[in-house]
């Protein structure tokens, strides 16, 4: 009997060593061997379950963890492991029962910290924000300095509109991980939510000065800031600045293929706002062929930053995109006061190493395909090329999203009208019927309601258009009534 126990302990020990070193097949084989030696050994089942969890074989893991619980029903850690596996496959009710049992029996600190963390995540997903904060704080007491906990707390404080607590959490994130953008981003989002947009931009400035690189998330938030400012003052210079950030990111950083695609699509949208149809099309083509386009410098290769007011550090950063990112705050301030600039004496070797994307398989997502087709329609509308508009309207009708299909119907009918093709009136009639049927199926389909009004305006059914317009919310009525009045006065 003693020999069997020693052999069992040796096999379990070897299984754990193999698991720690990533030898999953060997670890599982040894765990099964241990189970054969003693079918009532909880540790043997635990070893097998841990391997299954690492391989994302969650149902198998649940089965083995359950057997470990059956063998050792008074061990809270066993119930935690079982609950963790159940939570991984969204078996929330069962997971909560096992977590409650684990809490009742007691468990080690590491497991307790993880359990409260998971409970906080579950609470957050179910909208129980106060409970989520309580559990995350419990986890934080056991496992301090955890970035995921801090990120979740910041998000929850934002949802609760507790801006001060959220900003305190963001500051903790900055102290814990000064080279991570997450803390600055949390502060930016919270300050923007509070309507303190200029203070929010300061967070982006500080991030740009303090971080060793220009992460994609920071680039996206800087673009977002310029769009918010455009909403406030209507100045199209904000679109130009946003484009400058994107070009700088593409030129100076090492983006992934998905980052590159998003940059090209965002740039296309910005050029659409600037009514530069040729640039829109250039960016959309680039997004469809991201590796070739990026490696050949499409959009950013020819870019030369425009100098603005040299005495303003803010304008300097907007125009030159923080060319002096390696300088300290004190050096930047000294440069601002003196109005001087420092020209680097030589490029580093790293600057000369040209980064290229590898030609790996990449598929445009269905959502991005819809964005591309919509912006092609926008570009060719600017160019008044109705045949191309019709082509992309038909492409949009292949979408998986009902709203995109509806837009495709409407755009096709409008292009037929503008081309004066035979049957365009019948096409509008067909679209109106399809939109009406969609509204009957889903009375909340605002997109279908708006497009139906536009169809009625396009076909000069003004009285009916005005009647249908009254069914919409006031903020939706206003632009449609402007379109209707313009059409009545002879505009298309």
Poorly predicted runs are: 303-327, 335-352
SSE ordering? HHHHHHHHHHHHHHHHHHHHHHHHHHH
Main beta-sheet annotation: none
Strand content: under 5%
Helical region count?
27
The N- to C-terminal Cα distance equals 93 Å
Protein name: Tetratricopeptide repeat protein
Keywords: Repeat, TPR repeat
InterPro entries: TPR-like_helical_dom_sf, TPR_rpt, Ycf3/AcsC/BcsC/TPR_MFPF
TPR repeats: 42-75
Protein traits:
Serine Threonine Protein Phosphatase 5, Tetratricopeptide repeat; 0% strand; 27 helices; single chain; 492 residues; mainly alpha
Report on the structure:
InterPro entries: TPR-like_helical_dom_sf, TPR_rpt, Ycf3/AcsC/BcsC/TPR_MFPF. TPR repeats lie at residues 42-75. It comes from Ruminococcus bicirculans. With 492 residues, this protein is mostly helical. It contains 27 helices and no strands. Mean pLDDT is 89; it is low at 303-327 and 335-352. Among the domains are: 1-107, Alpha Horseshoe (Serine Threonine Protein Phosphatase 5, Tetratricopeptide repeat), CATH 1.25.40.10; 246-347 and 358-364, no CATH class; 367-372 and 384-488. It is elongated. Helices cover 73% and strands 0% of the residues.
Q: Can you lay out the helices and strands and say which pair or pack?
A:
Blueprint: H1 2-20, H2 24-37, H3 42-54, H4 58-71, H5 76-88, H6 92-105, H7 109-125, H8 129-142, H9 147-159, H10 163-176, H11 182-193, H12 197-210, H13 216-233, H14 237-252, H15 257-273, H16 277-288, H17 290-295, H18 313-320, H19 329-338, H20 349-352, H21 366-382, H22 386-396, H23 402-418, H24 424-441, H25 446-458, H26 462-469, H27 474-488
Helix pairs in contact: 1-2, 1-3, 2-3, 3-4, 4-5, 5-6, 5-7, 6-7, 7-8, 8-9, 9-10, 9-11, 10-11, 11-12, 12-13, 13-14, 14-15, 15-16, 15-21, 16-21, 21-22, 22-23, 23-24, 23-25, 24-25, 25-26, 25-27, 26-27
């Amino acid at each position: 009997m003693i020999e069997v126990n020693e052999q069992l302990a040796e096999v379990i020990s070897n299984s754990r060593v193999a698991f720690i070193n990533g030898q999953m097949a060997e670890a599982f084989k040894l765990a099964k061997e241990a189970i054969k030696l003693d079918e009532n050994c909880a540790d043997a089942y635990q070893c097998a379950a841990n391997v299954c969890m690492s391989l994302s074989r969650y149902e198998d893991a649940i089965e083995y963890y359950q057997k470990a619980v059956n063998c050792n029903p008074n061990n809270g850690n066993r119930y935690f492991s079982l609950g963790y596996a159940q939570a991984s496959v969204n078996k929330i009710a069962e997971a909560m029962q096992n977590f409650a049992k684990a809490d009742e029996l007691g468990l080690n600190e590491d497991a307790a910290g993880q359990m409260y963390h998971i409970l906080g995540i579950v609470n957050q997903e179910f909208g129980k924000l106060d409970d989520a904060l309580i559990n995350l704080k419990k986890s934080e007491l056991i496992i301090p300095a955890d970035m995921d906990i801090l990120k979740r707390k910041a998000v929850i404080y934002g949802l609760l509109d507790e801006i001060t607590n959220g900003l305190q959490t963001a500051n903790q994130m900055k102290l814990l991980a000064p080279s991570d953008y997450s803390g600055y981003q949390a502060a930016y989002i919270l300050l923007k939510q509070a309507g303190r947009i200029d203070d929010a931009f300061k967070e982006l400035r500080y991030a740009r000065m303090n971080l060793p690189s220009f992460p994609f998330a920071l680039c996206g938030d800087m673009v977002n800031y310029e769009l918010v400012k455009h909403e406030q003052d209507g100045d199209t210079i904000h679109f130009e600045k946003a484009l400058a950030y994107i070009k700088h990111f593409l030129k100076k950083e090492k983006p992934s293929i998905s980052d590159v695609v998003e940059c090209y699509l965002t740039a296309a949208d910005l050029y659409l706002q600037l009514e530069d149809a040729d640039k829109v099309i250039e960016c959309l083509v680039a997004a469809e062929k991201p590796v070739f386009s990026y490696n050949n410098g499409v959009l950013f290769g020819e870019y030369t930053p425009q100098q603005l007011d040299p005495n303003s550090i803010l304008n300097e950063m907007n125009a030159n995109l923080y060319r002096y990112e390696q300088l300290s705050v004190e050096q930047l301030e000294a440069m601002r006061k003196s109005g001087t600039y420092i020209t680097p004496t030589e490029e580093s070797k790293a600057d000369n190493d040209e980064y290229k994307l590898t030609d790996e398989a990449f598929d445009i997502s269905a959502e991005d395909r819809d964005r591309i087709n919509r912006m092609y329609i926008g570009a060719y509308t600017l160019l008044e090329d109705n045949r191309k508009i019709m082509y992309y309207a038909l492409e949009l009708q292949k979408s998986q999203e009902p709203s995109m299909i509806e837009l495709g119907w409407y755009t096709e009918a409008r292009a037929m009208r503008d081309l004066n093709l035979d049957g365009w009136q019948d096409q509008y009639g067909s679209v109106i019927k399809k939109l009406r049927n969609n509204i009957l199926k889903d009375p909340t389909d605002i997109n279908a309601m708006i497009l139906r009004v536009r169809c009625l305006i396009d076909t000069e059914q003004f009285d009916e258009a005005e009647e249908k317009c009254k069914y919409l919310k006031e903020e939706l009525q206003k632009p449609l009534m402007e379109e209707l009045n313009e059409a009545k006065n002879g505009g298309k």
